[in-house]
Amino acid sequence: IELGGEALQTVFAEDLERRLKEAKWDLNDDDNDQLAKFCISAFRDSSMLPSFGTKVFRCPAVKQEWSIAEITTLYKRAWGGLIDWADQHLVDKDAFETDRITFDGGAMRSLLLKNEFESLRRRHRGRHRTLPSFHFDTSPK
Fold first, then answer.
1. 57 three-class SS
2. Domain tally for the chain?
3. Cα–Cα dist 91/86, whole Å
4. According to the per-residue pLDDT averaged within each range, which of 6-10, 24-28, 53-57 is highest?
């Protein structure tokens, strides 16, 4: 994730917005387990993380506007929840040592780990030797 001039990179903000609306997702919900599952499904389907060329992301599901900082916080929570969820559900815990995590046969494309995730990496360092560096597969399907 770049927090500079390009704001948050890559694609499909509209797709995420549609998914949130269809799921009637409450972005204020602190249930990281459910949030992680939702993000796993979304990422697995379409190599997606929203691109915020504008300063505000509108989510009709909750009729709120979210600043870049708020969206960044949401994805930090999703990442922490993903690790916690994987701790409980992944058969092969060593998946965290590889380039990608595989859930139910599908590859998840997730967040580029930058400095803003350092606190999460420190928090989980005792349980995982390393955290994966994910990248986006933007090649045509």
1. strand
2. 1
3. 9
4. 24-28
